[in-house]
Amino acid sequence: MTEFVSVYITAKDVEEAEKIANVLVDEKLAACVNIIPGIVSIYNWKGNKERSEEISMFVKTKKSLVKEVIEKVKSVHSYDVPCIVSFPILEGDEDYLKYIEEETK
Fold first, then answer.
1. Taking CA 94 as the corner, what is the angle to CA 64 and CA 20, rounded to the nearest 5 degrees?
2. Which 3 state secondary structure label does DSSP give 84?
3. Which of 7, 104, 97, 4 is nearest to 57 (CA)?
4. What is the pLDDT of residues 14-61, one digit of tens each?
5. Residue pair 24/30 in contact by the 8 Å Cβ criterion
C-alpha cells in the first residue's frame, strides 16, 4: 500500500504560495495544496528574534515524492531556508487517499 504524507510549507505571501502550489500540482508532485493565510511566525534567525506574517501550506502527496517536493519548492521559494517538513498520514478516508494516489505521479 502506498504511504501518504502532508508536507507543511510556509511562504512569504499568497502569491508565492500560489506559485509553489501551481508548480507542485502541475508537475503531479501534489494532488492538492491548501493555502492558509494569516499566520504569524516568531523565530530566531542569524542571532536575532524575528516576527513575520506568513502563509502556511499543506501539500497532500505520496511519501515517495517528498524529496522531489522539497527540491522543487527550494528551486522556486524566495527564502534561503524555507520551512518544508512532512508528516505521515496515518489514516484517512479511502476515497481521498485513492484520489491522492491517482493525482500524483
1. 45
2. strand
3. 7
4. 999 999 999 999 999 999 999 999 999 999 999 999 999 999 999 999
5. yes
One-letter identity of residue 72: K
- Rounded distance, CA 28 to CA 31, Å? 7
- Which has the closest alpha carbon to 34: 6, 65, 1? 6
* Overall pTM surpassing 0.90 (yes/no): yes
Between CA 2 and CA 15 the distance in angstroms is: 32
Tell me which residue has cell 510556509.
10
Q: State which fold the 4-103 domain adopts.
A: Alpha-Beta Plaits (3.30.70)
> Coil, helix or strand for 52?
strand
